[in-house]
């Protein structure tokens, strides 16, 4: 059973528009006629109780609730306020509530917006484009246009006061409308996001298909809009397009209509009955009914209903034709309701099958080519682990879970690069089947992902597919396989990620042959070199050198890989023996200090930081440190004068590494918010992500100075006073930044939970102990967390 995390709560069962494409009133199901117009107090109370008990039973980190209808604003402000208050009161304190309302907008006024801003309710609007497009369907019963009223609602939501509650625009496609004009009209309203929906239809009642528009008019319409969206620089997220891009990369979709993720949504009608998704109303009368109600049945019982279970089976729940389709993992069979046909039920492809095939394959071939390299499946972070990270720490298991997600991401990126790469790609896929641990060891190298991202972004001079041969060769050598690979010579050397660098001189490719004890390299026009695995470094073999630290932590000092030049500052060249000795001593002293004074940070650091890249000294001896966003597990540092400073730089930079990994899979804020915010520690204002990164990193800075204050407890003198001043300064600055983030209005529900955790960590939360006791049973967070799609319910 999949726990239910998305709830559509019908607060009114009638509407003030008469849209002729509405799935509630204009399709097969007529159950709305016998239901109360407005949800009652007793139903509200019981709905909140049922959701609260379900969240506690499954330890849900977040739930998503959409107040819906009909037209939910017809319920009035008192009902909407009561619904929000009851839901929040019944949910456990550690479960975030993402509360939204979806409206046609004609009644939205300042009073409603003030209410929603007070209660933290995000507002989505339905709009089908410009006036001509919108008025094809969205009219009042007397024929009047709803367009001017919706424009007024959008303008109100776009004011500085109410922009934080603007969730976006929903547009139902009519292929008779010009897709470019529709997209431009929606973009002109500066929404935070847009979603395009296919009109609801089945094989019994197929969608409009004008003969002059060809066999796939909906796919062609979406492709035209997609091309225009790309040409305009992707000005706002478009959920339907983003879902296709994500599923082609092997990630989850953002909508019920695409991808194979289990559907975890249930509807509560105004009379308290449980129903499946509203879209099923288009199939046949009574199609969404479960026979359950919230006074008699729990959400666990609803989740086990055969109709709900049928929509949670992924690939196994699809028709044979869908299972054999090459794009099934992106399409997911389409929306469940669109598969209905009398006689075969839902055991059919979508009635939009051809359109979805056209859309997905065109985007795949033009925009996002990828050949899958099987990703290892990991459960992702639990809610307790995310809370650990939010407080600034993260134990070994938590950071290893982050690293597992990052390895999966690197595999997918490498698959996108590897298409058509010939021998190297074939060898890598063979090794992945025969010796996956060796492949993982190379792919976990931080600068493998940095190389892959550079390639996918168009590459740089010398940044060719030879990097794939280097990766395959290194994996083959690690596996002890008798490999033979043609590898590039760059700067007179052959590079083997995670192993080292062989100086061969000259140019042109080299042939590498490996065996159980070592390998040989023969360069064009040069002699053959033999390297034994147990051979120490010399003039021509420059192995990666590693520092063994107490407690089993091994840290690579990476000074050979050309891809390490991914940091903000210039990297150091090959370390001399003396410099290596200085680094080794400084690291051991810094690690001892971290274990003693920053014990909450030590386990995660040892689990996730695999590579330190020495940087060149800063001007005038200034301390320099950096992380590369696409190089999980690495930090760059210019060796500072003292071990305590090195300890501070290590924990500070690794905060950026951890948060970057969290953000790769979880939406903590609205990426379309382009405002700049004051950062107390910088003279220049920062974008929202920059402020979040700085705030999170300064948790470690605060912890460091707090430890120095404790060390000087009861001691007078300048060093003690300096420590107290620094501790007070960084704590005050970080507290201000937490307040700015929470007041931004652009954090998601999960983001608000995370930033509140940052505040708790700043106030002294430990974040430890999540690997024992009940917290360990928290259900895994979605990876990535998909937003609620109430408009499709």
TrEMBL record:
The keyword ATP-binding does not apply. It comes from the Bacteria. The keyword S-adenosyl-L-methionine applies. Residues 1-231 form the Radical SAM core domain. CDD domains: Radical_SAM (cd01335). GO terms for molecular function: iron-sulfur cluster binding; metal ion binding; oxidoreductase activity. Keywords: Iron, Iron-sulfur, Metal-binding, S-adenosyl-L-methionine. It holds the Pfam family Radical_SAM. Coiled coil: none annotated. NCBIfam families: mod_HExxH, SAM_SPASM_FxsB. This is FxsB family radical SAM/SPASM domain protein.
